[in-house]
């Protein structure tokens, strides 16, 4: 009986987690940047902290970011999107800029 109570208590948490994950995937696709091959971190508003974080990116990540942004600008100017198989997927999102942005914010707060 105790095990059944523990399982019953967990069910809503798991269901709400799946619901939240589904909502995140829906929003990711609805936002549209994935249809241009952009990652979420490519779309962050460039305030001074973000500019500094981008400067700290390793060359490979920086070049990949610039490529995605230039391709998106080109597609947008031609009113086109990528073929569906080239869209970025929610499951492939890696938030590449976040560690650098957190470091910049931490450095700014420590000075």
3D structure, described in words:
This protein has helices spanning 2-31, 48-55, 59-77, 98-110. With 111 residues, the protein is mainly alpha-helical.
End-to-end C-alpha gap: 56 Å
Query: Using only CA atoms, what is the Rg?
Result: 19 Å
Uncertain parts: none
Strand content: under 5%
Order of helices and strands: HHHH
How would the global form be characterised? flat
Counted by DSSP, the helix tally is 4
Q: What structural class results from the helix and strand content?
A: mainly alpha
Q: What is the arithmetic mean of pLDDT?
A: 88
Main beta sheet: strand number and arrangement?
A: none
Count the E strands: 0
Helix content: 55-70%
Q: Assembly type of the shown chains?
A: single chain
Which labels suit this protein?
mainly alpha, 111 residues
